[in-house]
């Protein structure tokens, strides 16, 4: 089916519909969730091209905003390829990584466990029955990791280590704990789509790009692309269920082409009410249970900060945003020196860091650009940082202009 007529996103009604859609956003980390190129067709599950009534981009965004699916269960496959270097045994050589020596930690803590979704391919089982009952299970060969929210109870269980993490707070901290931990890492097409819609503004083109079939459901394809060049972002494709308005699939690939950076979609979905027993959980015999009190609600990364870590943010001399939209660059000053390098006498550590980045020079001086397939960061030798979903050249240009 040919793409439908596009609506330029400068249209005020379209922007209003987009803001309405953004109300449904589950708070997630913004960095790393940006966009995709046009090599999208192979990413869609199913080969059908259903014949659906024509719909405009504005109408489709409003359909997403009006979606109120309270009950569902299904299987989601998510693949993430940021092109990060293989650090091999570096973590173990540094003593087990962040929090490795913290006896109060738990392998079942969602704030660290779900970060596994940041790389590789994973299969998730999801279920929901209203705002008070959700379950997400990360399947890994013979092991399973689950986060269960049932009323004021939040449980996370890691079958591999036989450890559980528990939170209970009738004042509503349980719900906060669920969304502050499990949902910090976007795991479903809806969460990814919501984040993408937040980024859509006057610098973005939004169109309807035909139809597809995902998990046996007829869907429209919403295509979101940056208008300007200079970004590593190409376009985002979101498959939207034609009946419920629920995003069924989200595909993100970089402007440089190649495999998707993020490809997440339902392979099975059922909109009937899940069995009540789906959300029941009792720790198996012998399980080590960690109680998540308010002091631990920040997650292991916060607990692992060195003394004085609470003042770390004060070291940054203000955060500035250069540019707008997809080409915006965050700039801040660490207040100190840049990254150690071999040339600065840092030895093996410097050589290792040099191998991860590209040395660059300009009017700003010199520095190192660290790259993924989506987000790049320039750290200058005098401690200034420029980061964004932009090209290396764009970072150097911004640093030169700021000098």
Write a brief structural summary:
18% of the residues lie in helices and 33% in strands. The protein has helices at residues 12-22, 57-66, 90-93, 110-113, 173-181, 189-199, 300-303, 347-356, 392-402; strands spanning 71-80, 120-129, 133-140, 143-150, 153-158, 163-168, 204-214, 217-226, 233-241, 247-254, 262-270, 288-291, 319-322, 329-333, 357-362, 365-371, 376-380, 384-388.
Describe the structure.
The chain is an alpha+beta fold and 403 residues long. The chain folds into two domains: 12-301, outer membrane lipoprotein receptor (LolB), chain A (Clam); 311-402, no CATH class. It is 18% helix and 33% strand. It has helices spanning 12-22, 57-66, 90-93, 110-113, 173-181, 189-199, 300-303, 347-356, 392-402; strands at residues 71-80, 120-129, 133-140, 143-150, 153-158, 163-168, 204-214, 217-226, 233-241, 247-254, 262-270, 288-291, 319-322, 329-333, 357-362, 365-371, 376-380, 384-388. It has a twelve-stranded mixed beta sheet with strand order 7-8-9-10-11-1-2-3-4-5-6-12, covered by helices on one side. It has a six-stranded antiparallel beta sheet with strand order 13-14-18-17-16-15. Strand 17 and strand 18 (384-388) form a beta hairpin.
């Amino acid at each position: 089916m040919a793409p439908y007529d596009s609506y330029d996103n400068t249209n005020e009604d379209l922007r209003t519909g987009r803001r309405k859609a953004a109300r449904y956003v589950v708070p997630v980390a913004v960095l790393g969730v940006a966009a995709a190129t046009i090599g999208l067709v192979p990413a869609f599950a199913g080969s059908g091209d259903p014949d659906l009534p024509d719909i405009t981009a504005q109408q489709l965004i409003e359909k997403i905003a009006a979606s109120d699916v309270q009950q569902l269960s299904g299987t989601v496959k998510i693949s993430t390829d940021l092109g990060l270097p293989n650090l091999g045994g570096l973590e173990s050589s540094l003593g087990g990584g962040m929090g490795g020596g913290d006896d109060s930690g738990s392998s079942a803590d969602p704030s660290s466990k779900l970060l596994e979704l940041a790389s590789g391919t994973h299969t998730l089982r999801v279920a929901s029955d209203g705002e008070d009952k959700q379950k997400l299970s990360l399947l890994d060969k013979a092991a399973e990791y689950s986060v269960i929210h049932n009323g004021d109870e939040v449980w996370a269980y890691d079958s591999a280590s036989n450890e559980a993490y528990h939170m209970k707070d009738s004042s509503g901290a349980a719900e906060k704990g669920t969304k502050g931990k499990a949902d910090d890492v976007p795991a479903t097409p809806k969460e990814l789509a919501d984040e993408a819609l937040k980024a859509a503004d006057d610098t973005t083109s939004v169109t309807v790009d035909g139809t597809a079939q995902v998990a046996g459901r007829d869907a429209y394809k919403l295509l979101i692309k940056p208008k300007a060049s200079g970004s590593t972002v190409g376009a985002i494709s979101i498959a939207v269920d034609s009946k419920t308005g629920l995003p069924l699939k989200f595909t993100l690939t970089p402007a440089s082409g190649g495999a998707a950076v993020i490809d997440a979609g339902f392979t099975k979905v059922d909109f009937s009410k899940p069995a009540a027993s789906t959300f029941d959980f009792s720790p198996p015999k012998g399980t080590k249970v960690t109680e998540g009190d308010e002091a631990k609600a920040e997650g292991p990364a916060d607990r692992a900060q060195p003394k004085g870590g609470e003042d770390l943010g004060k070291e940054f001399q203000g955060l500035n945003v250069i540019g707008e939209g997809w080409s915006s660059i965050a700039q801040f000053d660490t207040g100190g020196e840049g990254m150690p390098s071999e040339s600065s006498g840092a030895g093996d550590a410097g050589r290792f860091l040099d191998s991860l980045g590209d040395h660059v020079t300009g009017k700003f001086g010199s520095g190192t650009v660290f790259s993924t397939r989506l987000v790049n960061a320039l750290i200058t030798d005098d401690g200034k940082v420029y980061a964004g979903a932009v090209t290396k050249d764009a970072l150097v240009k911004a640093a030169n202009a700021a000098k």
